[in-house]
Design brief:
heterotrimer; A mainly alpha (about 270); B mainly alpha (about 300); C alpha/beta (about 425); B: about 300 residues; mainly alpha; MetI-like fold; 13 helices; C: about 425 residues; alpha/beta; D-Maltodextrin-Binding Protein, domain 2; 9-stranded mixed β-sheet; 18 helices; disordered N terminus
C-alpha cells in the first residue's frame, strides 16, 4: 500500500493505519445516517431488522410536488455562485496581490473586517438592501453576495506563492492584460480555485435562512427549504429526517467526486510549474 | 484614463483597480452597508417595525451588565482556543502525512473520505450527531455499552456538551482545511525538498525546515478563517444544544440570534455583534503581530 | 436621529445607482418605518381579480410523509373563497425552522403576507406591526369565537386565536401504571412523585417514569409544558401589576422547589437536561407519564398506547392548564386588509376548521357553531374545566426571559444553582434585557 518509490517504514505504516482509522470515524456518522434513512423508525432504538432497505422515505421526498423545481433552483444557484465567485474573487485577489494599487492593504483589511460580523445581525439590513434594489425573488439575490471577502482572502493567500516571473514573462511577450489573467494566473491557482469552488458550491447548496427570507415566492424555494417542510412539530420520523439529510447531501457529494479528478490534475499542474 | 503619458506602474495600478472593482462593489453594497446599518442600529432601540430611535450607549451598557453575555463571551473564547489549534494541527498533520507518505490511490481515497463531512450541511450534520449523542438510546452510548462502559450524558453535562460541540465542528471542518494544506504541500517545489534530502535532513527536519515555513501563508489563512468562523459559531450550537445545558454552550452569535429574531430587539442584538466585531479585530491584530514576529 | 439612517440610505442609494440597479427612487424613506403602501399589488398585477391577491403564511401541521399536506388542504379550501370573492389567495406553507426570521423580514418589508399565523405576537403588537381587528368583526361574530378574548393583547384585539384551546394535560400509560398496581391517574404533585417511585419499583422498562423535556432546544416550549402549569397550580398569577413576570414570589419558589424535588426524589436523574421529544417517548412506551397537548391524543391512540389523562392540582388544590393560543393576524402594512380579514374569517369558519380538525390536526373547536368532535375523553375537560385554562402570558422580551429561566433550571438540575439563584439570576437578566 505504500508508494513504490518509498521504502517501507514502520512509522509510515502506523501513520497509515491512524489515518485510515480517522477516515472511518469521519464517515461513520454518515453511514449511520444512510442506514437510518432506510427505516421507518420513530424511536432511536435501532435494530438490524429495522433496516429494511425500502425506499419509502426517498419516494416521499421525490414525489413531493415542489421537489423538481426546488432541486433545479438549487442547482442553478449553486452553479452560478461558483462561476461568479471564482471569477470575481480571482480578479480581486490578483489585483490585490500582484498590482500596485494604492491603499490596497487598507482596503483589504476592510475586506477582512466584513467577515467578522455574524450573519444573524446583517440578515435584516441585507434584506432591506435587496428590497431597495428590487432583487427579492431573484437568483441574483442568492448568487451575487456569495462573492464575498472569503474567496478574495483565500485566493490571495495562494497567489502569494505564484512566482511573478510567469506574469512578467507574459508581459514582456506583449500578452494583453486580460489574457495574462486568464491564461497565466488562473491556471497557476487552479487548486485553490477548485477548493473555492467546492466551498462555494457547498455553502450555496446548504444555505437555508437567506434563501428562505429573500424569496417570498415559493417557486423560488431551494432544496433545503423544500426538505425542511417535511418536518412537523408533532411527530419525529427519524427515518424521514435522515433521508432528507442524505438527499441534501447527494448532489454536493456527486459534484465533489466529479471535481476530484480535476483536483488531482490541478495539483499536479501546480506542482510542476510551482 | 487613456493618457499615453502613464507610467508602467500607473497603468498597472489602473488594471489592478479594474480587477478589484467588481468585488469592491459587492463588498460595498452588500457587506459595508449592512454592517454600517447594524452599527447604526446598535445605538438605537430599533425593533424592526418602528423607526429607530437613538438611545446612545444604552444597549452597550445593558450588554455589559448582562451575566449571560459574559457566559457567552467566555464560551466563545474557550471554543476558539480549543477548536482552532486542534483543527489546524490535525489538518496539517493529515495533509503532510498523506502528501509525503501516502502519495498513491489509497492516500487520495482517504483524503477524499476525510473531506466528506465538510459537504454535509450544518443542519443535517447536527441532526445526525444529535441522534448519535442521545444519552438514552443514542448509538454512541449503545456502542460504548457493548464494551461495558456506563451511559454517558453527552449533551446533558456541562463540559461534555461543550466537547460535543467542538467534536462536531472539528469533524466538519478538518477535511476542508486539510485539502487546502494539501494543495499547499503539493505546491512546495521539488528542488527545495530534494536539496534537503541531499543535505541528509530526515523527514522530521524537512518538515520543520522546509514544509512548515513554506506553508506559512496557508497556515496564516487557515488560522484567520478558523478564528473568524469559530467566533461566529451558531448553527451547530443552535441545533445540537440550544446553548445548554445551563449556559455551558451559549455563544455570542446565539445571543445575537435570540434577541434579533425571537424578541425583535435588533438594537440590542447589533450591540452584541459590534462587541464581537471589536474582539475579533483585536484578536486578528494580535495574530498578525505574532505572525510578523515569527517572520 | 433619523438623519443618520437617511444618510446611510443615501449612500446606499448612490452605490446602488452606480451599480446600475434599478432602485425605486421615490421611496427614499427607510422601509422600516414607512411600509411602501400598495407597492406590492401594483408591481405584480397577477390576475385581473377585483378582490386582489391575498397572501397567507402558515406553518405545517402535518408531517411531510403525509399523503395530503397542509398546502394541499389550504389550496383546496380556498378554491371556493376565491370564486366567491373573485380574488386570488396565495398560500405559503413555511417551515417551522426559520419561521421567526421569515416573519420578521416579511413584516418589515411590506413584501410580506396579508394574513399571517403567529405563535408569539406580543412584541409585534406592541411595536404596532399588527392591525387592530376589533372594528372588522360584528358582535355576533365575536360572540361565536370561543377564544376571542385571548386575542386581546397589549391593549387591543390584535390577533384572532386559531390553533387554540389545545389543553396540555398529563397523559398516563395505563398499562405501565397497572404493572405497578396503580389503577387511577395521579391527581396531585405528591401523587406524581409516589407514582414515579412505584413505577420504578415495579421494574417497568421505561427510560423515565415521568419525563419533562428539559433538553428541548427551545426554552420557551420547555417552560410552556414544564414550568408554567406548576406555577399556576401553586396558586400564582404569572404577571404582576406592572406586567412583569412574577417569578420572585411564593408560587415561583414553590414551583422551583417542586421541580427540584423531582430530581431529589429520583423521579429522574440529571440526564433529564438532555431529554427531548416527549411525545415520541410516550408513544414508544419509553415513559409512563408526560405532559402533552390534547391534540396529540390521536397519534397516541394510533400508536396503540392504552392511555388516560389527568389534570394535576397543586399543594393547595389549585389547578392550572396551559392552552396554546397560536393565532392569525393581519400586518398593519398589508395592502389588502379588508380582503385579508375576510380570508381570516373564512379560515376560522366552522366549515373550514371542521375539515382542518378532521383531515390535518385534531383540536378543540374554536367557534360555537363548529361540530368537530375531539376524543370524547376530553369532553368534560372542555365543557367543565375551562376556568382552569390559562393562555400564554404575554410580556416584553418573553422569549429571552423563558430562555434564561430554562437555562437556569437546567443549571439547577446540574447542581450549579439553587432555587433562589434561579429566581435572582433570571429576574436580573430580564430587567437588564428590557433596559
Amino acid at each position: 500500500m505504500v508508494g513504490k518509490t518509498k521504502r517501507f517504514s514502520l512509522a509510515g505504516a502506523g501513520g497509515s493505519i491512524l489515518v485510515t482509522f480517522f477516515a472511518l470515524l469521519c464517515v461513520a456518522p454518515l453511514v449511520y445516517m444512510v442506514l437510518m434513512s432506510f427505516t421507518q423508525l420513530r424511536t432511536l432504538y435501532i435494530r438490524l431488522e429495522d433496516i429494511t432497505f425500502n425506499l419509502q422515505n426517498y419516494y416521499i421526498i421525490i414525489f413531493k410536488n415542489s421537489f423538481g423545481r426546488a432541486l433545479l433552483n438549487s442547482i442553478i444557484v449553486a452553479v452560478l455562485s461558483c462561476v461568479w465567485t471564482d471569477l470575481v474573487c480571482a480578479m480581486a485577489a490578483y489585483g490585490f496581490e500582484k498590482k500596485p494599487v494604492p491603499g490596497k492593504e487598507k482596503l483589504f483589511k476592510v475586506y477582512l473586517a466584513t467577515m467578522m460580523i455574524p450573519s444573524q445581525v446583517t440578515l435584516i439590513p441585507l434584506f432591506l438592501i435587496m428590497r431597495q434594489i428590487g432583487w427579492l425573488n431573484s437568483y441574483a439575490a442568492l448568487v451575487v453576495p456569495m462573492a464575498g471577502a472569503f474567496g478574495c482572502f483565500m485566493l490571495r493567500q495562494f497567489m502569494k506563492n505564484v512566482d511573478d516571473v510567469f506574469i512578467e514573462a507574459a508581459q514582456i511577450d506583449g500578452c494583453p492584460e486580460p489574457l495574462i489573467f486568464l491564461r497565466v494566473v488562473l491556471p497557476l491557482v487552479q487548486p485553490a480555485l477548485i477548493s473555492l469552488t467546492i466551498f462555494t458550491f457547498v455553502s450555496a447548496w446548504n444555505s437555508f435562512i437567506w434563501p428562505l427570507v429573500v424569496n417570498t415566492n415559493t417557486q423560488m424555494y431551494t432544496f433545503p427549504i423544500a426538505l425542511s417542510l417535511l418536518d412537523s412539530q408533532h411527530d419525529t420520523n427519524y427515518g424521514l429526517t435522515m433521508a432528507a439529510a442524505a438527499a441534501s447531501f447527494v448532489i454536493p457529494f456527486a459534484m465533489y467526486v466529479g471535481m476530484q479528478e480535476q483536483f488531482v490534475e490541478g495539483i499536479a499542474l501546480g506542482g510542476v510549474k510551482g | 484614463m487613456k493618457k499615453s503619458k502613464l507610467t508602467r506602474d500607473g497603468r498597472q495600478a489602473i488594471y489592478g483597480m479594474l480587477y478589484i472593482l467588481p468585488s469592491f462593489l459587492i463588498i460595498m453594497v452588500f457587506c459595508i452597508i449592512s454592517i454600517a446599518l447594524a452599527a447604526y442600529f446598535s445605538f438605537t432601540n430599533y425593533n424592526l417595525y418602528n423607526a429607530p430611535e437613538f438611545v446612545g450607549l444604552n444597549n452597550y451598557v445593558n450588554v455589559f451588565k448582562s451575566g449571560t453575555f459574559y457566559a457567552a463571551l467566555t464560551n466563545t473564547v474557550k471554543y476558539v482556543i480549543v477548536v482552532v489549534p486542534l483543527q489546524t494541527i490535525l489538518a496539517l498533520l493529515l495533509a503532510v502525512f498523506i502528501a509525503e507518505k501516502m502519495r498513491n490511490r489509497y492516500g487520495s481515497f482517504l483524503r477524499s473520505v476525510i473531506f466528506i463531512p465538510f459537504i454535509v450541511s450544518s443542519i443535517a450534520a447536527s441532526a445526525v450527531w444529535k441522534v448519535i449523542f442521545k444519552t438514552k438510546g443514542g448509538i454512541l452510548n449503545v456502542a460504548l455499552g457493548l464494551f461495558g462502559i456506563d451511559e454517558v450524558n453527552w449533551l446533558g453535562a456541562k463540559t461534555l456538551a461543550f466537547v460535543c460541540v467542538c467534536i462536531v465542528t472539528i469533524w466538519k471542518n478538518v477535511g476542508y482545511y486539510m485539502v487546502i494544506y494539501y494543495a499547499g504541500v503539493m505546491g512546495i517545489s521539488l528542488e527545495q525538498k530534494e536539496a534537503a534530502i541531499v543535505d541528509g535532513a530526515n523527514a522530521w527536519q524537512r518538515f520543520w525546515r522546509i514544509t512548515l515555513p513554506s506553508l506559512k501563508p496557508i497556515t496564516y489563512m487557515i488560522i484567520t478563517l478558523g478564528v473568524i468562523s469559530s467566533f461566529q459559531i451558531f448553527d451547530i450550537v443552535y441545533q445540537l444544544t440550544g446553548g445548554g445545558p445551563g449556559t455551558s454552550t451559549i455563544t455570542l452569535a446565539y445571543m445575537v440570534y435570540t434577541y434579533a429574531f425571537s424578541n425583535q430587539k435588533l438594537g440590542y442584538a447589533s450591540a452584541i455583534a459590534m462587541v464581537l466585531l471589536v474582539i475579533v479585530l483585536l484578536i486578528h491584530w494580535i495574530q498578525n503581530a505574532f505572525f510578523k514576529e515569527k517572520e | 436621529m433619523k438623519k443618520g439612517f437617511a444618510i446611510l440610505f443615501a449612500v446606499f442609494m448612490l452605490v446602488s445607482v452606480l451599480a446600475g440597479c434599478a432602485g425605486d427612487a421615490s421611496s427614499t424613506a427607510p422601509p422600516a418605518s414607512t411600509p411602501a403602501p400598495g407597492s406590492e399589488s401594483t408591481a405584480e398585477p397577477a390576475e385581473p381579480a377585483t378582490g386582489g391577491v391575498v397572501k397567507v403564511w402558515l406553518p405545517p401541521y402535518k408531517g411531510g410523509d403525509a399523503e395530503y399536506t397542509d398546502e394541499d388542504f389550504w389550496n383546496d379550501m380556498f378554491d371556493k373563497f376565491e370564486q366567491e370573492n373573485n380574488c386570488t389567495v396565495e398560500v405559503t406553507v413555511l417551515p417551522w425552522s426559520g419561521y421567526d426570521e421569515k416573519v420578521a423580514t416579511g413584516l418589515t418589508s411590506g413584501e410580506g403576507p396579508d394574513v399571517v399565523y403567529l405563535g408569539s405576537f406580543y412584541d409585534l403588537a406592541v411595536a404596532g406591526a399588527l392591525e387592530p381587528l376589533d372594528a372588522y368583526f360584528s358582535a355576533e361574530e365575536k360572540d361565536n369565537y370561543i377564544y376571542w378574548d385571548m386575542g386581546f393583547v397589549a391593549g387591543d384585539q390584535y390577533v384572532l386565536p386559531m390553533m387554540v384551546g389545545n389543553a396540555n394535560v398529563l397523559y398516563c400509560n395505563m398499562d405501565i401504571l397497572a404493572e405497578a398496581d396503580l389503577t387511577e391517574v395521579p391527581k396531585t404533585w405528591d401523587d406524581l412523585i409516589s407514582y414515579s417511585k412505584a413505577i420504578e419499583a415495579s421494574g417497568a422498562n421505561v427510560t423515565y417514569p415521568f419525563m419533562q423535556p428539559w433538553g428541548n432546544p427551545s426554552g420557551k416550549s420547555a417552560c410552556m409544558t414544564s414550568f408554567l402549569p406548576y406555577f399556576w397550580q401553586a396558586g400564582g398569577e404569572f404577571l404582576n401589576a406592572d406586567g412583569n413576570p412574577n417569578l420572585d414570589s411564593d408560587a415561583g419558589r414553590t414551583t422551583l422547589e417542586f421541580l427540584k424535588s423531582l430530581l431529589d426524589e429520583g423521579v429522574f436523574d440529571d440526564t433529564i437536561v438532555a431529554a427531548t421529544d416527549p411525545a415520541d417517548m410516550f408513544r414508544n412506551g419509553e415513559t409512563a407519564m408526560v405532559i402533552l397537548s390534547s391534540g396529540t391524543a390521536r397519534s397516541i391512540t394510533e400508536a396503540g398506547i392504552n392511555w388516560d389523562f389527568a389534570t394535576l392540582e397543586g399543594p393547595n388544590g389549585d389547578k392550572g392548564i396551559w392552552v396554546a393560543g397560536d393565532s392569525l393576524a393581519v400586518p398593519a402594512n398589508g395592502a389588502n386588509k379588508e380582503m385579508a380579514v375576510k380570508a381570516m374569517k373564512y379560515m376560522t369558519s366552522a366549515e373550514v376548521m371542521d375539515a382542518f380538525h378532521e383531515q390535518i390536526f385534531s383540536m378543540p373547536n374554536i367557534t360555537k357553531d363548529a361540530t368537530h368532535v375531539d376524543d370524547e375523553r376530553f369532553a368534560d375537560l372542555y365543557e367543565n374545566q375551562t376556568a382552569d385554562f390559562h393562555p400564554w402570558p404575554f410580556f416584553e422580551n418573553s422569549d429571552a426571559f423563558y430562555d434564561t429561566l430554562f437555562k437556569n433550571i437546567q443549571s439547577m438540575y446540574m447542581g450549579d444553582m439553587t432555587v433562589e439563584g434561579v429566581i435572582e439570576n433570571t429576574m436580573s437578566e430580564y430587567m437588564t434585557s428590557i433596559g
